[in-house]
Fold this protein.
Amino acid sequence: MHIVPPFTRLAHRRELIRQFTPNWFTATMGTGILALALNMVPFAPPWLHRLSAGLWMANIVMFTLFAILYGARWLFFFDTARRIFRNSIVSMFLGAIPMGLATIINGFIVFGEPRLGPVALQIANALWWVDALLALGCAWLVPYMMFTRQNHSLENMTAVWLLPIVAAEVTAASGGLLIPHLASAAESVQMLFFCYALWAISVLPAMGVLVILFLRMVLHKLPGKDMAVSSWLSLGPIGTGTLGLLLLGADAPLVLRGPGGQAIAAAAQGFGVIGGVIFWGYGLYWLVLAILATLRHLKDGLPFNMGWWGFTFPIGVYSVAT
């Protein structure tokens, strides 16, 4: 699959559709987490909250545009679009679609409810289930294609392998924000346990990938300068995993009732705090390694490319968890 580099002049306007790839959805991930993180700044002036809401609205426009372009590619250039499943790099970015959508869903909860009222929560609830299906599809389908159709090697491995796997835990953390706003107690309980399952589907395989990534860097050293920023991606599953444990642990006492439910809720809340701190410390380990790797790359130059989104979403989720 040939990918036209950003800012290259296209031979025809239809090439904008034919060459469009899910890599662009990483921009919605970065924009979305920036909006959510800025809104959490303590003692922030009112203009900062307005800026956060503006970024969320801009993110909706950007995500919608990208979704139309990528959908049009599958509609008008189906034969070339389906080749993504054989591409060992671009296919990883399918996970960016549900992760970008999750930031918009969170925005409907944070920014939408004061502006739109209860309908914002209804939209968030409906989109969340769509997001969960997309995340699970990426978590299973992309690794299966890695096992059966794609060519990979340890030497060429990067943290990009994490992208299709991490989407499910991003959805789980988003569910943690949504659960307190659900009207039905039964639905809240169901979503709580489903979110824990999503967390496990994502976080545990991601930890295995990080072990392989550590081995790859020991044996083959740092990735090339074009993939230099990928060192920061390791913070993504750790930061989101931390955030998921904290949010779901806080939700448990709100939705689990009765003697048995209260005991589980107390355990979930305690595990959220202790488990979150443990994950946060693990993230600090990879944060320092990412800083050192970036400083090393800066000596030889760090060219701008779409990979620079790695400076936004992974750091953003780790900051929000902190």
Remarks:
- The chain has a mean pLDDT of 94.
- Residues 258-298 form the longest helix (41 residues).
- The radius of gyration is 20 Å.
- Residues 236 and 314 are 4 Å apart (CA to CA).
